């Protein structure tokens, strides 16, 4: 924890050459995307997307795919003998289907004002996979 505290203390000095950018951010934000992901500490959307401050509005939740304590096995597969990656990817697609069920989401999708993307981040390789059609198969971006 001490390293986190120390970084927070020295952060203002570290961004001294970016004061103008942070001053603009203080006046308001216009993120490019809402990025909904699990609250998993190893999944850092700004890290693997290259997003800068103000680029992403992040919603992190434990409800996407929780892991059993002491393992990397998602809770949905506990005792099922299924491939945890496949089950987690299916869970992502199921959540997108739930989002599509909201009338205000459906209207924006139909008008082209909103697009939904299904991504799966692979911690050990750093690779982000996508299900472009929402049909199930996840492939590299």
Automatic annotation (TrEMBL):
Binding site for Zn(2+): 38
Organism the protein comes from: Streptomyces albiflavescens
Protein name (database record): carbonic anhydrase
Signal peptide from the UniProt entry: none
Job description of the protein: Catalyzes the reversible hydration of carbon dioxide to form bicarbonate.
Cofactor(s) the protein requires to work: Zn(2+)
The protein's Enzyme Commission number: 4.2.1.1
Keyword Hydrolase: no
Superkingdom of the organism of origin: Bacteria
Keywords noted in UniProt: Lyase, Metal-binding, Zinc
